[in-house]
Amino acid sequence: MKKGQQTKNNILQSGARIVHQSGYNNTGIQQILKSAGVPKGSFYFYFRNKQDFGLQLIDYYANFFYSRLDNYLQNLDNSPLNRLRSFFSEFIQELEDNKCQGGCPLGNLSQELGDTNEVFREKLNQIFLQIRCKIGEFLILAKEQNEISDKYDPQDLAHFILNSWQGALLQMKVSKTMDPLKNFDNLVFKTILNQGGHDAGPFISTHKHQ
């Protein structure tokens, strides 16, 4: 990777961490520069202003999710439904390790900016549509392999799963418990998706037992 790209990625990585913790509006450019260890000129070389940085930050977050989804989608060692469940279980484990803090950075930005900044709203909406389509790819394969009932439309299911996940994350943050995410996993993968289809198989929890 070229030095210039490394510097830009360093700024985005540092900014991503701070925005995830404090929110977009509560994050100043100076905070990002200090964390990244770069001069102010470097920031404005890669980003026109804070909004441009924020929009590129959304792409940075989105590419992280796309990459994870694609990695699970391409792992043919497991069934499509189990691959999708493993994708979510990885995040559930990380959130448990992080004591229910943080949540989804894209969801957080949507709550913070969806009603106040039309540019951000449109960008975030397009990202969520793309994530929903990728979730739908798992479900299309699951339907082809008779893992889920023919009565379900994969894209409708993908919409429901994404909405349920974001709602569960919101409840996790205010309750400070993993119960909403465990409820999401049980209802989506053990109950709803198993009706009329084959059992998605036992879920091997990575949670640490006391």
Structural shape:
elongated
* Main β-sheet description: none
The DSSP helix count reads 9
Helix fraction, binned, reads over 70%
* Oligomeric grouping of the chains: single chain
Number of strands: 0
Structural class: mainly alpha
First and last CA, distance: 43 Å
Calculate Rg over CA atoms.
19 Å
**Runs with pLDDT <50, length 5+?**
196-210
Description of the structure:
The chain contains nine helices and no strands. The radius of gyration is 19 Å and the shape is elongated. The longest helix is centred in the middle third of the chain and has 27 residues, at 118-144. The chain has helices at 3-22, 29-36, 40-46, 50-73, 80-97, 105-113, 118-144, 154-175, 179-192. By secondary structure, the protein is mainly α. The model is unreliable at 196-210 (pLDDT under 50).
Summary of the model, kept short:
By secondary structure, this protein is mainly alpha-helical.
Q: What is the topology?
A:
Layout: H1 3-22, H2 29-36, H3 40-46, H4 50-73, H5 80-97, H6 105-113, H7 118-144, H8 154-175, H9 179-192
Helix pairs in contact: 1-2, 1-4, 4-5, 4-7, 5-7, 5-9, 6-7, 7-8, 8-9
Key traits:
single chain; mainly alpha; 210 residues; disordered C terminus
